[in-house]
Design a protein that fits this description.
6-stranded mixed β-sheet; alpha/beta; 12 strands
Length: 318
C-alpha cells in the first residue's frame, strides 16, 4: 500500500533498520508491516505478517544478510502481525518471541468467535479456494496457538536488551488491544509502534478508543524523529502529529451527537494525506463501521475491550 504520505516525503530509515511493507488488499486479509532491526546477536523482527509470502520475505531478507533471526517482537496479537511467527520459528527454532500476554484472553473470546466464523466460511461452497487457503492458515495457528505464543512476556514498560540491542520497550495497556508493545530506540530515535498508528483508518476491532488516545499521548512524549506504523509508510514526527489529531478528532466526533456522515467526512478530511486513492471508499466504510461498533454501540459494548478479556465476561454481539 502506497499512501500520499509515502509518495511525498517519507523519512529515511537509519542504518540497521529494514522495512518489509505490509498491505491492506481489498479482496483478502491484510499483512502488517514487518521491521527488521540489526542487533549484536542476530536480527530482531517486529511483527511477522499473515500470509506465507510475507513471512517468507522476512526469512529471505535474513538469509541475504547472512544473519539469523534471533528475536521476534509482536506489537499485538492480531493475526496479520503474528501468523508468520510459525514460519520463522520453523526456520529459526531458537528464536525468542516477545509480546504482552494479551493473546491469552483473545484466544478464549475474540479469536474463539473468529474460529467459529471460519468454520462457517469453510462450510460455505461459495468460499473461494484462495479464501479457504487464508482461512486454513489462520485456523492452524488458532488450533495450535503455541506456534505463535511469546516465550518472553512483556509485563511493563522499561529498558531491555533484545538480541543484545538496548531498546526502550513500552507496554500500552487497553489501547488498540489489551496489550500493545511498542519500541523506542534512543540511539537512532526511531519509534516502532504497531497498530497504534494505521495510516488509512484506525483498526478498532479489538480497541478501547480512549485508551488508544492515551497511548498516542505516551508515544508523543518520546523524542523520536522517525516512526514506523503498523500499516502504511514511515512517518516523520509532523506526520504522526497530524495522524494523531485526525484520530482524536474522530473519537471525539464519535462520542458526540454529530451525524455519522459528519464524523466519517471528518476522518476522510483530516487523514486525507494518509489515504491513497485505492482505499478511499474502504477507509470511509471502515470508519462508518467503527463508529457503529466501537464508538456508538451500547454502553456495555463500548466497554467490551476497555477491560481484560475473559471467557467469563465475554458475550458475542448480537
Amino acid at each position: 500500500m502506497t499512501s500520499p504520505a509515502s509518495a511525498t516525503a517519507a523519512p529515511s530509515l537509519p542504518t540497521g533498520y529494514h522495512l518489509i511493507p505490509g498491505a491492506v488488499p481489498l479482496d483478502s486479509g491484510p499483512d502488517g508491516n514487518s521491521i527488521v532491526i540489526d542487533a549484536p546477536k542476530g536480527l530482531i523482527v517486529v511483527d511477522t505478517g499473515r500470509h506465507p509470502e510475507h513471512a517468507q520475505a522476512v526469512i529471505d531478507y535474513a538469509r541475504q544478510q547472512g544473519k539469523p533471526i534471533a528475536a521476534i517482537v509482536n506489537s499485538h496479537w492480531h493475526l496479520d502481525h503474528t501468523t508468520g511467527n510459525w514460519d520463522i520459528r520453523q526456520a529459526y527454532p531458537g528464536v525468542a518471541i516477545y509480546a504482552s500476554n494479551a493473546l491469552e484472553g483473545a484466544l478464549v473470546t475474540f479469536l474463539a468467535d473468529s474460529k467459529a466464523d471460519a468454520e462457517k466460511a469453510l462450510a460455505d461452497p461459495k468460499t473461494t479456494q484462495s479464501a479457504r487457503d487464508q482461512i486454513l492458515r489462520g485456523r492452524s495457528v488458532l488450533d495450535h496457538p503455541e506456534r505463535i505464543k511469546p516465550n518472553h512476556i512483556v509485563v511493563k514498560s522499561g529498558k531491555m536488551a533484545i538480541a543484545g540491542r538496548p531498546l526502550d520497550v513500552h507496554l500500552a495497556k487497553i489501547a488498540a488491544t489489551e496489550g500493545d508493545v511498542w519500541l523506542y530506540d534512543p540511539k537512532t530515535r526511531v519509534a516502532v509502534v504497531g497498530d497504534l498508528v494505521v495510516d488509512i483508518v484506525p483498526f478498532m476491532d479489538s480497541a478501547c478508543p480512549d485508551g488508544w488516545s492515551k497511548a498516542l499521548g505516551e508515544v508523543a512524549k518520546v523524542p523520536f524523529t522517525v516512526l514506523i506504523p503498523g500499516h502504511g509508510a514511515v512517518m516523520s514526527r509532523a506526520d504522526f502529529a497530524e495522524w494523531r489529531t485526525a484520530y482524536d478528532n474522530f473519537v471525539k466526533c464519535g462520542h458526540s451527537t454529530a451525524g455519522k456522515k459528519t464524523c466519517v467526512d471528518g476522518w476522510s478530511r483530516d487523514a486525507a494525506r494518509f489515504i491513497d486513492a485505492a482505499h478511499k471508499d474502504y477507509a470511509r466504510e471502515a470508519a462508518d463501521y467503527y463508529l457503529e461498533t466501537r464508538l456508538r454501540s451500547s454502553a456495555e459494548e463500548q466497554q467490551r475491550f476497555c477491560r481484560p478479556l475473559t471467557a467469563a465476561t465475554w458475550r458475542k454481539p448480537a
